[in-house]
Structures are given as structure tokens and as C-alpha cells.
Amino acid sequence: MLSLPAEFEQFHWMVDMVHNVDLGLIVIDRAHNVQVWNGFMTHHSGIQPNDAIGKSLFELFPEIPQDWFKLKTKPVYDLGCRSFITWQQRPYLFKCRNVRPVTQQADFMYQNITLNPMRTPTGEVRTLFLSIQDATAEALISQNSE
């Protein structure tokens, strides 16, 4: 049996985790072009990676207010700190279908989003990654308890 170097095996595991984790992961550059698009995003948005990578986030999701979103990314790029968008501030950033319509009565997926800086080896932030969490159940419970 052929033995692969440990580094290659670990890299393969990381790629597999990124694409199969129950969390949306998107990497964008400073021009807001998509560099990475994981399986969660494919499943929930219906957009395939080859249709997303290299395209502007605003082209893929024209409902995103550009000026507002650029203000949210500015501290991530300029200061290297995280930024957050919660479903209470804005129900969703990416209009994705609710994939559990029988158990959850919502027309779309509510989202909590974290914008995270990605540093080069020299410490420069050229890209950021968005982690998108499905907060639909939490939002519906909160709305129904009011």
C-alpha cells in the first residue's frame, strides 16, 4: 500500500472538512470576488462552486447592499479584526432557501455571519473568510416567544 506524506493527508482532511462542515465558508478578496465556496453554500444557495469562484459577491447576490457590506469589511481588511452580522441586525446576507420547511416555517434561512481576516505570511490581510451559520431555528423560537 502506498503511503502518503502526513502533510498531504492532513491537507486532504482540511479540504474535506471545509467542504463538508455544517457551516457556510466563503473566501473573498478585497474586490469582493469569491475565492472559495464550500459545500454548505452550494447546498443552501443552489450555486455551484464553478459558478461562484471568480465572481463578485454582489453579482451572485445583488440584494446585498454594497456600501453597507463594504463598511462591514473595512475593519477586517484595515485593522485585521473580526466583524459580525447577526440575524437580529439583518435576517440574512445571502438569500438562501430554508432547507427544513416542514419543521421550520420560514421562507429563507436566517443567518449569523462572522467576517474573519486571513493573513499572508507577512501579516497583510488580502482576503477574508465569511462563516455563515444557519440561525433559523433560533430566530423562529425567539419570534414565537414574543
Automatic annotation (TrEMBL):
Pfam family of the protein (one): PAS
A single BP term in Gene Ontology: regulation of DNA-templated transcription
Residue span, PAS fold domain: 15-134
Superkingdom of source: Bacteria
SUPFAM superfamilies: PYP-like sensor domain (PAS domain)
The protein, known as: Diguanylate cyclase
